[in-house]
Write a structure and sequence with these properties.
The chain has four helices and three strands. The chain is mainly α. It has a three-stranded antiparallel sheet with strand order 1-2-3. Helix 1 crosses helix 3. The termini are far apart.
Amino acid sequence: MTRLPQGAETALEPVRRALQQEAETTVARSDAEARQQAADLLGRAQAEADTIHRTAQREGAEAARAEAVASSARARRQARRTVLAEQEHLRSLLAQQVQEQVREVRRDPRYPQILRRLTAQADRILGPMASVTESHKGGVIGTAGSRRLDLSLSTLAEQALEDHAGEVRRLWHDA
């Protein structure tokens, strides 16, 4: 390496200061640009995070509403099944009570009169040539050729329950 002549260092001092000043200015400018880029990047990242957060909140709220609707529908269906099951149970109890009452009719002193009326009904429907016999369930069974008429007490009771099913259903709605 060559040495600078004497006095050259003093002569180069303004150049050295100018280079150092320019280097400091460049560093300051680079630092300012880097800080600006970092701030811009942070700003964009924050904006994107805010957008993601709002989207997640909206989607979460929509999912919660959808789940609430589905849960409510499930609860309504379950409640309806429970109501229908209870109504069927009560209808079954009513049918059972009616059949128990039907068995008691055979012990009623008016039962022979009931048999005569049912026999007359079978004759009217099937004709005078019909064969009418007492049913083991109480009441009568009539036959005429291939035609059969079941006027047994249990069948009549079932038919009466069916005929009055609308009234029974109204009990559920009036309650």
